Amino acid sequence: MLEKNIQTFIACDCEYDEAKIVLFGAPFDSTTSFRPGTRFASQAMRSESFGIETFSAYQDKDMLDIKVFDSGDLELPFGSPERALADIQYRTGVIMDDGKIPCMIGGEHLVTLGAVRAAAERFSDLHIVHFDAHADLRDDYLGVKLSHACVLHRCHDIVGDGKIYQFGIRSGDRDEFEFAKAHTHMQRFNFGGLKNAVKEIGDAPVYFTLDLDVLDPSDFPGTGTPEAGGVRFTALLWAIEQVSKLNIVGFDVNELSPAYDPSGRSTALACKLLREILLRFYK
Amino acid sequence: MLEKNIQTFIACDCEYDEAKIVLFGAPFDSTTSFRPGTRFASQAMRSESFGIETFSAYQDKDMLDIKVFDSGDLELPFGSPERALADIQYRTGVIMDDGKIPCMIGGEHLVTLGAVRAAAERFSDLHIVHFDAHADLRDDYLGVKLSHACVLHRCHDIVGDGKIYQFGIRSGDRDEFEFAKAHTHMQRFNFGGLKNAVKEIGDAPVYFTLDLDVLDPSDFPGTGTPEAGGVRFTALLWAIEQVSKLNIVGFDVNELSPAYDPSGRSTALACKLLREILLRFYK
Amino acid sequence: MLEKNIQTFIACDCEYDEAKIVLFGAPFDSTTSFRPGTRFASQAMRSESFGIETFSAYQDKDMLDIKVFDSGDLELPFGSPERALADIQYRTGVIMDDGKIPCMIGGEHLVTLGAVRAAAERFSDLHIVHFDAHADLRDDYLGVKLSHACVLHRCHDIVGDGKIYQFGIRSGDRDEFEFAKAHTHMQRFNFGGLKNAVKEIGDAPVYFTLDLDVLDPSDFPGTGTPEAGGVRFTALLWAIEQVSKLNIVGFDVNELSPAYDPSGRSTALACKLLREILLRFYK
Amino acid sequence: MLEKNIQTFIACDCEYDEAKIVLFGAPFDSTTSFRPGTRFASQAMRSESFGIETFSAYQDKDMLDIKVFDSGDLELPFGSPERALADIQYRTGVIMDDGKIPCMIGGEHLVTLGAVRAAAERFSDLHIVHFDAHADLRDDYLGVKLSHACVLHRCHDIVGDGKIYQFGIRSGDRDEFEFAKAHTHMQRFNFGGLKNAVKEIGDAPVYFTLDLDVLDPSDFPGTGTPEAGGVRFTALLWAIEQVSKLNIVGFDVNELSPAYDPSGRSTALACKLLREILLRFYK
Amino acid sequence: MLEKNIQTFIACDCEYDEAKIVLFGAPFDSTTSFRPGTRFASQAMRSESFGIETFSAYQDKDMLDIKVFDSGDLELPFGSPERALADIQYRTGVIMDDGKIPCMIGGEHLVTLGAVRAAAERFSDLHIVHFDAHADLRDDYLGVKLSHACVLHRCHDIVGDGKIYQFGIRSGDRDEFEFAKAHTHMQRFNFGGLKNAVKEIGDAPVYFTLDLDVLDPSDFPGTGTPEAGGVRFTALLWAIEQVSKLNIVGFDVNELSPAYDPSGRSTALACKLLREILLRFYK
Amino acid sequence: MLEKNIQTFIACDCEYDEAKIVLFGAPFDSTTSFRPGTRFASQAMRSESFGIETFSAYQDKDMLDIKVFDSGDLELPFGSPERALADIQYRTGVIMDDGKIPCMIGGEHLVTLGAVRAAAERFSDLHIVHFDAHADLRDDYLGVKLSHACVLHRCHDIVGDGKIYQFGIRSGDRDEFEFAKAHTHMQRFNFGGLKNAVKEIGDAPVYFTLDLDVLDPSDFPGTGTPEAGGVRFTALLWAIEQVSKLNIVGFDVNELSPAYDPSGRSTALACKLLREILLRFYK
User: Fold this and answer.
1) What are the pLDDT tens digits along chain D (283 aa)?
2) Which of A100, A107, E106, F267 has its CA 20 to 30 A from that of A247?
3) A263 contacts F217? CB cut-off 8 A
4) Rounded to two decimals, what is the model's pTM?
5) Helix axes D81-97, D111-122, angle to 10 degrees
6) Contact at 8 Å (CB) between A75 and C7?
7) Contact E177, E140 (CB under 8 A)
């Protein structure tokens, strides 16, 4: 008898109970219910992941040896950010409550807020490590508080001063950079100070959010707001190795927008990077 | 002394006071603040309009002989449909109160609701003529009431039974088609019955909303949800001629998504069509 | 507990035992193991099928009311056509032996040969109805017998003279057209004579193979060898209605190559067409 | 011993002396006012021509049975229209003086002027048959007389009143349409009156110029100024059959801009069309 | 009362009288020998500039604090380089005569000649700093003197030996490199020697011309003749800082061809770079 | 009398007898007879090579001063790898037997096997230098032995242990990396150890195979399986200089897939690189 068509990120096909890390997609980017942008990232990554190997030549480790479960995509209501965030928060919480680490594939960066809400409910003294080209620290954007441009400000509302570490930031308005000086740890342009940050954070629970546009657009053109002057892929691999030393309780990878890159290399890079992250974070 | 760079839809450069028709753009499609979709339609149409002629070989009329004013784009808050609709309603109302006809360039189809609200406040017995591939009659979409998939249902909430005439519809769920049977006049697939509809409507005030995906995707690939089996460009020209006999108090053209058509012909067609509409509707 | 990510063509999610029609993908197009062409069709169609409705405005029927099972894609060895065909033949046979109708999504047109071999083993007097721009009747192509350009010739080797009905053909070399005169029923350019063919075939078992490039490239640019002068989408809907009167024992839809159409409308059309076929063929 | 790489349009590989028709490319596009790119047409057509068959299912004739020579592309100086036209005129003249029919592949439409100059020197009472979306009858364009937008006006300077027959025209400014009324035979939108025109022209020598944008953009998106509302491919095949009854002394096919159509179908159509023209015009 | 639609490069919206720098576009590309398209650069940059911030994280300065005026695009006659250059020269002269610094957005590189002519009339001892992948020192190109490939040779005709400083050059024919040895200062591949050049030039008036293809194609694919092995974005930022120490009397940014980069990142980079240049050059 | 259209890679137009290096294309990538992938590389490179200069600013040498012959493309039977390899082996052998060095432009990487077979027949102690992102050392791929993923394993079958030097490898399965440890010299990620390898190899005959995906996808997006983390263009230039010190008896450049890079820069880079290789290898 034939089986249903199951599609997972490559090699993420163990049973739920065995898994230490649980993937899910948060395909949210707007009130438009079909098409453009980051909402296609999770599906594209699952499909394209079969173009990469399960083995990492960087770590001499293999996805076949670890236990990750891909629980598919949330069905999120476009046009209602608040409800979408509630759904994300719920799914994240279920995974955490089962003692597993959630790995969310965005979606626009706003989705991070849902996961951070879930994490903050469960882990006191939550820290956030944030890689991004953009500060995302606006208080509102044209009067709207729940916008991707405000997501780290909203996270700050929850975790408070000194808990957010930002790296690679190279774009924002003046107010955002001033907010950062007062309330977050921000490293512009690169990963300078990351090793120290890892020491400072120590054993505290950490939510790690990776906006892929922290990468230079030469490496990663497939994103909505490409910002020249970013970090290179190999620098990011190094930075992920550092982050993996932390006590990660949840993480996400967001802002891949597959359609902007007809060569497909942005999606391929995102897949390879997720493989490297999973192999690093799996313990 | 040099002048500022003024950019209008081709030949829409009279003074506001002289104008009988006033254009504006409603670049709204999501909470994502930069990139994909219909929010780029109005700017693209202004730019590309200089690739068409001001003269119509179909009507032997010339844009140089009519008075249209292009008032630019609204700056709409992504992530808050209600506020975006309020801004649209306000701009539409100002133009109507000055005795002029508003012509809105969308944006996703939801923007129509703002304009219809303004029209219904000012014109009793408002009728709506709606060309579209999709019924847009859902009551809600994943629980959200202000969605492009619900926009005609929301309009029906305002104008009531028997006032909405829909043409070209070829996609929807079963409930939408049943709602149509009970509450609107719906012609599937084509413009059959349009002449009669024009007679029936008579002198009543009419808001005309043109979702460009009523066109066959062979004519108009540049849209988010292309539906095979649509009407052809020449049929649409004919239909617009019929509609022009009505008492139009406002109209819109929406759902052009320039980036989906690298040939640029969808934007070129939208420009040519808008020229033909303006020349027809101008009296 | 969370579930694995199951992805089917829209609404094809019943249990295998209940199903009357069983889908599978045959993503074969070359010895190149990753990328271009028709091998991406089945995955793309599953993904994009969520952009269409389950309800058909043409038939007033709904996918939610029929039982179709999507059994996923075969994993086919590139570089060895003979082995790929054997795998296809086996899967087709399993489905037929369970009393169900197989629906294969290609892949290049050569995949049809595997399914026809399975059908011919099980159904004597097998007829073939073939819609295509290309005759596909070469005896060999640069010395190779198992080529997409030869697939109907290979089918003729199996079913013999007078059993193959070809429609829409507008490209081939002189020998192919002469072969057709002697051995098949061929209608050039359109569906002329289809009603008569349906009568002639009567109750005989029929394998139906639909090369989507029978469509005009204006409707369907997303294919490897677009041939101007094809049939339109609505004509094809009509032709499918005629074919549905036959005793269909298996069918396929092939030669969608999603990457050639950045607007996505070719994949969208293929999804809509498959919905219409499934609703017509389901009895 | 190995041979040099010779690349011709498919099957145009006889010796020069045997040929009745001689192809050449005129890859020039520097007066193009909207979107350039036609300079790549001739090379693209040679490459892509190997994707079509030599046999025509429309005429039951084969390119293998006729004698056409492909003499390659002129190397034209960008930035100097006058010198480019002189080179075209010279090449056209050489071919005519050898008793053969020149077939030029543009390039922008201005290239026609070079060929018409050569033809008018050699054939008195020269007529011109012109298929196009655009009138191309401006006297100057931003002060420039040698512009693609003026090319038929320049031809009229040479051949005079009543010698130019224009079909399919649907774009131009008011002056051009008035010029046409006074000086040329113009049929808007379609091929109405073509049969009569063929009778009227009789045995007079004819230069035939085919701007491919006469086609509807749904058939032919790969051009710089796509104009909705054009003729379909099959109508154009019919029109070419009519034209083939004339005394053709030279012809061209122009305004293909391959890069605007990532599906490649515009180039494929141009190749197929040129095959049909060559088979019709060859006597 | 509603206002006309004014579109400027981001934040370049002061009054003309207040401005120290005045932008204009020179959308001309008709001598381009390989792949045209730069005529769309200025419009694309204005549109896309709203996707970047006004604040520079590199300089801690904000466009909101400086006074730049955008005077729109020249309407240049395609097909007549001499007339186009005259129009550019005139506009440049007007701005200089008003005591302001002209900033021209090309267009192909030939446009620089018009601006240099205006500058040389007004400033004796004019020096030129030139960043480019290509030497642009040919004496003629296929017999044409006014070609983008000759533009620096034409500038040398005006300013004479030793006044032109070229950086980043990695392509040219042998004669161009020999001309450079005799007549200009040329640094191949990178910005080596730029600091010394700045010292040497001292207070002399400088026209700065930036061909964006000096950048590596990995950073900047959207140009007609991408040359591997270029400088990176951050190196270019450094080089601009050096150049800003000079006495700049005019400058241009040219050879962006937006259509060659579907990701949009080349246009985004050009916008960001222009922001950095304006903030550096404004005094 | 006019000449046939001869198209060669730029400046590779001497007579066969004079040539020291002979180019040919091996446009093989699948059983699909038309379209995607690497089979279009050789034609694209010939066309685009006219966009680069014949002069190298890196070596101060000019293609005009060396003798290279372009013998065009093989016509290879898709669907039969064994026959395609035989044709490649034959052509390679003819060139070698005439005392010349063959330069093959792929095609997928499998084509290398044909050339290596020819070389190994003629040169005992043949070594292979291999630049690639992928190990290509699988013993079979889904049961198929003649696959691009196995090509170096097949070469190892011929030349044996310790004769293959691999550089830049960053992708493969665990078995491939273990095979490499036992049987080849493999340098992961970069060109470390290349100088030593050159010394070790000494005067032995060398076949050099360059899979262009060894380059970082930021430099070279136009390939089927882009792998982040590759070498940069300038590093590759350096590595080629090292390789040129060896006794090269044949070489190839493969895996360019032009259609994946709409900017055209991948093809441009491949042309420039081939120019640099030819100038280096020519002695």
Assistant:
1) 788 888 999 999 999 999 999 999 999 988 776 677 888 999 999 999 988 999 999 999 999 999 999 999 999 988 889 999 999 999 999 999 999 999 999 999 999 999 999 999 999 999 999 999 999 999 998 888 999 999 999 999 999 999 999 999 999 999 999 999 999 999 999 999 999 999 999 999 999 999 999 999 999 999 999 999 999 999 999 999 999 999 999 999 999 999 889 889 999 999 999 999 999 999 9
2) A107
3) yes
4) 0.95
5) 40
6) no
7) no
If you measure CA to CA, which chain E residue comes closest to A170?
Answer: E57
Residue F255 makes CB contacts below 8 A (sequence gap 6+) with: F38, F41, F106, F108, F109, F211, F212, F213, F223, F224
d(CA F204, CA F200): 9
| E170 contacts in chain F (CB < 8 Å) | 57-58
pLDDT single digits (tens) F87-128:
999 999 999 999 999 999 999 999 999 999 999 999 999 999
Distance CA D145, CA D151 (A): 8
**Cβ distance of D221 and B272 shorter than 8 Å:** no
**Rounded distance between C-alpha atoms, residue A117 and residue B83, angstroms:** 26
Residues 6+ apart with CB under 8 A from B177: B135, B186, C55, C57, C60
F171, F217, F221 ranked by CB distance to A57: nearest: F171
Tell the residue number behind the tokens 């009523």, with chain if given. Answer: B214
Contact B131, B236 (CB under 8 A): yes
D92 part of contact set with chain B, CB < 8 Å: no
How far is Cα A247 from Cα A127, in angstroms, rounded to an integer?
Answer: 10
Query: How many CA atoms are closer than 13 Å to the CA of D226, on its beta-carbon side?
Result: 28
Q: Which candidate, F138, F172, F174, F168, places its Cα nearest to that of F153?
A: F138
Burial of residue F233, with CB atoms counted within 10 A of its CB: 0-12 exposed, 13-18 middle, 19 or more buried: buried
Question: Which secondary structure element, helix H or strand E, spans residue A235, and what is its range?
Answer: helix A233-243
User: How far, rounded to the nearest angstrom, does the alpha carbon of residue D200 sit from its chain's CA centroid?
Assistant: 22
**Cα angle for residues C268, C273, C274 (degrees, 5° grid):** 100
Tell me which CATH code domain B16-281 carries. Answer: 3.40.800.10
Task: Find, among D73, D140, D136, D105, the residue nearest to D251 by Cα.
Answer: D105
- The CA-CA-CA angle for residues C278, C280, C282, to 5°, reads 65
Rounded to whole angstroms, the Cα distance separating C274 from C283 reads 15
Report the residue of chain F nearest E260, measured CA to CA.
F263
Subunit contact E79:D75, Cβ cutoff 8 A: no
Tokens of F199: 């010394």
Q: Which of A253, A276, A28, A43 is nearest to A132 (CA)?
A: A253
For residues E3 and E191, the model is more confident at: E191
Interface check B228 vs C, CB under 8 A: yes
Q: Do B6 and E4 touch (CB under 8 A)?
A: yes
Q: How far apart are CA D129 and CA D277, in angstroms?
A: 14
The alpha-carbon gap from C239 to the nearest alpha carbon of chain A, in Å, equals 30
Which positions in chain E touch D78 (Cβ < 8 Å)? 30-33, 141-142, 144, 147
The whole-angstrom distance between C69's CA and the closest CA on chain D is 32
**Within F98-132, where are the H helices?**
111-122
D177 vs B55: CA distance, rounded Å: 10
